[in-house]
Amino acid sequence: MxxxxxxxxxxxxxxCEPECPNVAISEKNGTFVIDPKKCTECLGHFDAPQCAAxxxxxxxxxxxxxxxxxxxxx
Amino acid sequence: MQASIHEGTAVxxxxxxxxxxxxxxxxxxxxxxxxSGKASCGSAAGQGDLPTEIWEKVKNHPCYSEEAHHHYARMxxxxxxxxxxxxxxxxxxxxxxxxxxxxxxxxxxxxxQAAKKVLAVASTIPQMTVLxxxxxxxxLANPEKxxxxxxxxxxxxxxxxxxxxxxxxxxxxxVDTIAGFNVDHVTITINMVDPEIGxxxxxxxxxxxxxxxxxxxxxxxxxxxxxxxxxxTERGILCKxxxxxxxxxxxxxxxEVNKAVKSRGAFLHNIMPLxxxxxHGTVFGLTGQRGPTAQELKAxxxxxxxxxNMMRHCRQCRADAVGLLGEDRSAEFTTDKIMAMxxxxxxxxxxxxxxxxxxxxxAKVAAKQEELSTLAGEMSDIKLxxxxxxxxxxxxxxxxxxxxxxxxxxxxxxxxxFVGHRRVDLYCQGxxxxxxxxxxxxRAINDCHAVFVxxxxxxxxxxxxxxxxxxxxxxxxxxxxxxxxxxxxxxxDKVNSGEIEHVxxxxxEIRQGALISAA
Lengths: 74, 519
Ligand code: SF4
Ligand code: SF4
Ligand code: SF4
Fold this sequence. Notes:
- The structure holds two protein chains of two kinds.
- By secondary structure, chain A is mainly β.
- Chain A has one helix at residues 50-54, and strands spanning 2-5, 25-28, 31-34, 61-64.
- Chain A is globular and about 30 Å long.
- Helix content of chain B is 36%, strand content 16%.
């Protein structure tokens, strides 16, 4: 599993980008996107997904169910 | 929000300027104390409570000195839109409605673009002395971009003063860097010192990788803000505090905020009206939270004035505003245009120009002093407001129909004291007076006894008179304060001789809409 950004809601404020511990967030054509291969849902780093916690628009950084849940390496 | 120019600028005669500034200082002290019982008339004079070294720094700063803003210009660049808190008066889809003019999204720049823009503007507008990084967002939520921009500008345009506006959450972590970049002016937006009140203003803050809400969030924010303020003032960095006045939430409480920030060394307090038009989509806009009226705002500012210097001329500028206050030239400096510009940054030309500005300023102050002496000995309790149409330079030099804002002065036997400005719709669009907008102009200056203009048509003149506001065009292109004092003197004479009767005027409306035109 990973998070994704609903681009129609993203204000391009860039608050999420520097918070991501995995550098999974980048700017593309004016809005921000998450690379699902890099996103770990912040597991093992922080209590809550950082992008969602800092995003000013509720329900913009949401779980992308099309990815399997990330496992913290043992 | 910003910093002052000066230090070592080649002014015509430093001694003379010093003398005159002292004169302004002295007068300003008595004038601003109006009714507040501030003890500055006899003491350190006019700088209010400001120590001389601080006064030296701010007297030429367009955002701090109400007198300097006629002569010097500032610009803001938007490089760091991220923010680490949420305010109920802000919708970050647009700019923060209260930190900057709403309705127009600022152009986001990279630090390199921002540095080029500063050079381009400073070469074109020699009065441009101050560069601020404010919103949208919190510059310290994105410190790399903010400090990179400062670094580039300090290298290429060392005479430009740098300043910074912040919500204060991250401030304690960056005080040393701020000091290292010689940023000597910082503005912190502080709306409360009581977390219970804060919880009504801030839905959440993001700190140390966690989102906090409610009273806990507000407590964290106020602690960090006050700590940051203390750390800055300890290092001798000037701090201004901005507060947004939200009727029913923090309006009474701001007197306490005023005391709290003063005791921690803030040198200026700027209380701004809440802007909450529903179309901006802010929480307050949507819940119907109203902003204050002009009279409520002035009453609060007056009640804080005894405590410290109050700032009255804040325009709540757009985050990418360019030019003199009230004269936004940002449209001339869009990214495309700047990138195509040949920039020739010539320090000497800038200095020479600023010397000329200083000369003009000295003349203006001298004229005011002279006129003021004619008021000496007048005894009257009458205090009234007048509106002035001006394009800057401290002159009555704007046509009534072209005015996008009016400056408001309070007149009394102590002189003319600037108390604020009123934004209005253009009355005269392409030469045609529009009855509806005339009404909004009248509503905006309804608390004024007179309006000073360079020129005015017959029609609006008659309507103004009907509304009880005297249009005055006999002082066209003369100095504002000198003219206002002269007019006030003749007003008093007429009252004394029984020719007119002095009546109090009503309240006025603070206009909420966006100023779209940047011309
Ligand atoms: S959930 Fe965490 S790891 Fe995934 S994109 Fe957001 S901040 Fe990065
Ligand atoms: S924090 Fe939210 S709104 Fe801001 S860039 Fe990231 S996804 Fe977009
Ligand atoms: S601090 Fe400024 S940018 Fe951040 S939410 Fe508040 S008003 Fe908006």
